[in-house]
Design goal:
- The protein is α/β, with parallel strands linked by helices and about 575 residues long.
- The chain is built from 18 helices and 17 strands.
- The strands form 5 sheets. An 8-stranded parallel β-barrel has the order 2-3-4-5-6-8-11-13, surrounded by 5 helices.
- Helix 17 runs antiparallel to helix 18.
- The termini are far apart.
- Bound molecules: 1-deoxynojirimycin.
- 1-deoxynojirimycin binds next to loops.
- This is Cytosolic beta-glucosidase.
């Protein structure tokens, strides 16, 4: 009896602790304070990011298998100008040069991903391990460590082995959970003595919605209203399984951490005094970030997703919700499987309710019953979806703090692109974006959000998925037309370097000089780049024109000689 009482008290206490770990996010408060001069806590980690398919190239080199992106980019009309990541930045061959760039910026970490088909060409560990692929990542990791740059490794940045797509339907099939776990286990085994920061998935929202709902991304499936939910369900299970594998088999030896990288935009109520706008904005975020974060931190899908998708499925006459259900065992297995949260964030939307009556067109987007708006005054220097709204970042970070018990956060992606037409290495707008977004992150740290590191997206211009090479996010410009893929620093490299060396924004006088100083150097980089087509032209002369002309000369001389000999005889 006494034992029972103690147990019950313990349960009540545990419940109180759990509940008290979650605070309410204050939607009605949106301070847009002025620039905040201060520095980050000592040990704050500064980095830059990339992903395998976007950067490596070498798509069929050294035994690599095909990924769904290799297959998707081969279909005409899927990618802007039918570009592919076949060679991209040639990061596979140029990683040493890239580490020199990182070292020059004094980066503390580099966030990259491992290509699953590069080390398991068919996707299956039981079939074939490609040692050359393993060697590439070993060399990369070793060289990073030699240069005191911490590797932060993502296991899945969208490049599923194509054979797993063909045989099983990719993330529509629950068997991916075990295959992914085998792949992750192999990575822990081979690299885990050196890598201490792992993330299972990057931006699963995009994998699910763009891969299986809209079909804009590989594998290009358009399973409206069901595909994304199913893919996400399996991804969440796969994440949890990998976390448990690490926890049980590797943690005590390797002493690393396993998290997940979730990317989400912020949703701000159009009118913060209107309760319906607030609810719609919260719905937007729960369908975005909460879809993945709530099961992982709190044990199940957000209630609002269960309510909305369940009700709409009922109205469609379906016997069950289109949102799959976790069993009680699965819920407790998934809950708490995150040692730290990776957060990717780029932009913000204003949100207001909009009713979509249920019917044939049901989809992830109509399930949410809301409309997204933007302020025409927000700067939008690059990608059409990317408006610069720095205060949304602080709101997002505070939301994470209140909803998920103030987890340790590493910002895994934040940055801005530029459109292809204007090649200008003096990227004033990017410096402004970084300055303002990093400053809002600093305010969030002051608010008590547990942010430990920041990753600028991206180190290099790279393959921007369905946009091909037309949108450039890099700190470094890459000349894709030149087969050597030379890198050129944009002014933002100098600017980011100053933020890193000052660990923030020490004082107004100093910070205000940074942009001016950064611009002084970018003019000469612009000149170098302007000369680059000449280099490309010279290469063409030496590699195509000269050999062709020489061969023609030899042929002509031979013919001439033949005539001469005939004439004599
Ligand atoms: C997030 C994705 O993870 C990354 O691959 C992409 O380049 C950026 N968004 C910019 O669109």
């Amino acid at each position: 009896m006494l034992q029972r009482c103690v147990l019950r008290t313990y349960h009540v206490l545990a419940l109180v602790l759990c509940v008290s770990a979650r605070e309410d996010f204050d939607w009605t408060k949106n301070e847009k304070t002025s620039f905040y001069y201060s520095t980050f806590p000592t040990g704050f980690s500064w980095g830059a990011g990339s992903s395998a398919y976007q950067t490596e190239g070498a798509w069929n080199i050294d035994g690599k298998g095909m990924s769904i992106w290799d297959a998707f980019t081969r279909k005409k009309g899927k990618i802007f100008l039918n570009d592919t990541g076949d060679t991209s930045c040639d990061g596979y061959n140029k990683f040493k040069e890239d580490i020199t760039l990182m070292k020059d910026m004094k980066l503390n970490h580099y966030r990259f991903s491992i290509s699953w088909p590069r080390i398991l060409p068919s996707g299956l560990k039981s079939e074939h391990i490609n040692e050359k692929g393993i060697k590439y990542y070993e060399d990369l990791i070793n060289m990073l460590l030699d240069n005191k740059i911490t590797p932060i490794v993502i296991l899945y940045h969208w490049d599923l082995p194509q054979l797993l797509q063909e045989k099983y339907g990719g993330w529509q099939n629950v068997t991916m959970v075990n295959y992914f776990n085998d792949f992750a286990n192999l990575c822990f085994e081979r690299f885990g003595h050196k890598v201490k920061y792992w993330m299972t998935f990057n931006n699963p929202w995009s994998i699910a919605v763009e891969g299986y709902e809209t079909g804009e991304h590989a594998p290009g499936m358009k399973l409206k209203g069901t595909g994304a939910y199913k893919a996400a369900h399996h991804i969440i299970k796969a994440h949890a399984k990998v976390w448990h594998t690490y926890d049980m088999q590797w943690r005590s030896k390797q002493k690393g951490m396993v998290g997940i990288s979730l990317t989400a935009d912020w949703g701000e109520p159009v009118d913060i005094t209107n309760q319906r706008d607030i609810e719609a904005a919260e719905r937007y975020i729960q369908f975005y970030l909460g879809w993945f974060a709530t099961p992982i931190f709190n044990g199940d899908y957000p209630q609002v997703m269960k309510d909305y998708i369940g009700r709409k499925s009922g109205q469609q006459g379906l016997g069950a919700s289109r949102l799959p259900v976790f069993s009680p065992q699965e819920k407790s297995y998934i809950k708490g499987t995150c040692d730290f949260l990776g957060l990717g964030h780029f932009t913000t939307r204003y949100i207001t309710p909009k009713n979509y009556p249920s019917g044939l067109g049901d989809s992830y987007f109509t399930d949410r019953d809301l409309a997204e708006l933007v302020d025409p005054k927000w700067p939008d220097p690059g990608s059409e979806w990317l408006y610069s709204v720095p205060w949304g970042f602080r709101r997002m970070l505070n939301f994470v703090k209140t909803q998920y018990g103030n987890p340790m956060v590493y910002v895994t992606e934040n940055g801005v692109s530029e459109k292809m037409v204007c090649t200008d290495l003096c990227d004033d707008w990017r410096m402004q974006y970084f300055k303002d977004y990093i400053n809002e992150m600093l305010k969030a740290v002051k608010d008590g959000v547990n942010v430990k590191g920041y990753t600028a997206w991206s180190l290099l211009d790279n393959f921007e998925w369905d946009e091909g090479f037309s949108e450039r996010f890099g700190l470094y410009y890459v000349d894709f037309s030149n087969k050597n893929k030379p890198r050129y620093p944009k002014a933002s490299v100098q600017f980011y370097k100053r933020i890193i060396s000052s660990n923030g924004f020490p004082n107004q006088r100093e910070v205000e000089s940074w942009k001016r100083k950064a611009v002084e150097t970018c003019a000469s980089s612009n000149q170098l780049l302007a000369a680059d087509p000449l280099i490309g032209h010279m290469e063409m002369v030496s590699e195509i024109v000269i050999p062709t002309v020489s061969t023609l000369c030899i042929l002509l001389s031979a013919v001439f000689l033949m005539f001469l000999l005939r004439g004599r005889s």
